[in-house]
Amino acid sequence: MDSKLLLQEAVKAHANAYIPYSRFGVGAALLDQDGKVHQGFNIENAAYGATNCAERTALFSAMAHGQKPGTFKALAVVGDTDLPITPCGICRQVIAELCDPDMKIILGNMKGDIRETTVRELLPGAFGSEELRQGQKPE
């Protein structure tokens, strides 16, 4: 699936965002290894810490449907922003944990602007499972 089609899927997801507080909708579309698209959108909550971003919703939904970490092909994210939107820090960490470092990330806005990057470029020097294992004592 090309970048523009995946971004269109993110725009469709954007329409479902539950954003009664910020009114700032974000949509995401995650392409899995089988060619299936998993949509995600931000879901807010009055207890702000319970809010979930679009990128994480798409990733968690894909995994809930049997997809495994590291098998995803691309992620598109869109928001109503002047420039192509970028994921927040928490989402960057989750993306780095669940996706291949060279996986394509397509960033866009509602005006049709697009910027392509990779997981590695979004979060250079990502902290992951290897770093956690390095700090553990052998059993």
UniProtKB/TrEMBL annotation:
<feature type="binding site">
    <location>
        <position position="88"/>
    </location>
    <ligand>
        <name>Zn(2+)</name>
    </ligand>
</feature>
<dbReference type="InterPro" id="IPR002125">
    <property type="entry name" value="CMP_dCMP_dom"/>
</dbReference>
<feature type="binding site">
    <location>
        <position position="91"/>
    </location>
    <ligand>
        <name>Zn(2+)</name>
    </ligand>
</feature>
<dbReference type="GO" id="GO:0008270">
    <property type="term" value="F:zinc ion binding"/>
</dbReference>
<dbReference type="GO" id="GO:0055086">
    <property type="term" value="P:nucleobase-containing small molecule metabolic process"/>
</dbReference>
<protein>
    <recommendedName>
        <fullName>Cytidine deaminase</fullName>
        <ecNumber>3.5.4.5</ecNumber>
    </recommendedName>
</protein>
<feature type="active site" description="Proton donor">
    <location>
        <position position="55"/>
    </location>
</feature>
<keyword id="KW-0862">Zinc</keyword>
<dbReference type="Pfam" id="PF00383">
    <property type="entry name" value="dCMP_cyt_deam_1"/>
</dbReference>
<dbReference type="InterPro" id="IPR006262">
    <property type="entry name" value="Cyt_deam_tetra"/>
</dbReference>
<keyword id="KW-0479">Metal-binding</keyword>
<comment type="function">
    <text>This enzyme scavenges exogenous and endogenous cytidine and 2'-deoxycytidine for UMP synthesis.</text>
</comment>
<feature type="binding site">
    <location>
        <position position="53"/>
    </location>
    <ligand>
        <name>Zn(2+)</name>
    </ligand>
</feature>
<dbReference type="GO" id="GO:0004126">
    <property type="term" value="F:cytidine deaminase activity"/>
</dbReference>
<dbReference type="GO" id="GO:0005829">
    <property type="term" value="C:cytosol"/>
</dbReference>
<dbReference type="GO" id="GO:0042802">
    <property type="term" value="F:identical protein binding"/>
</dbReference>
<comment type="similarity">
    <text>Belongs to the cytidine and deoxycytidylate deaminase family.</text>
</comment>
<feature type="binding site">
    <location>
        <begin position="42"/>
        <end position="48"/>
    </location>
    <ligand>
        <name>substrate</name>
    </ligand>
</feature>
<dbReference type="GO" id="GO:0072527">
    <property type="term" value="P:pyrimidine-containing compound metabolic process"/>
</dbReference>
<dbReference type="InterPro" id="IPR016192">
    <property type="entry name" value="APOBEC/CMP_deaminase_Zn-bd"/>
</dbReference>
<dbReference type="InterPro" id="IPR016193">
    <property type="entry name" value="Cytidine_deaminase-like"/>
</dbReference>
<dbReference type="InterPro" id="IPR050202">
    <property type="entry name" value="Cyt/Deoxycyt_deaminase"/>
</dbReference>
<keyword id="KW-0378">Hydrolase</keyword>
<feature type="domain" description="CMP/dCMP-type deaminase">
    <location>
        <begin position="1"/>
        <end position="130"/>
    </location>
</feature>
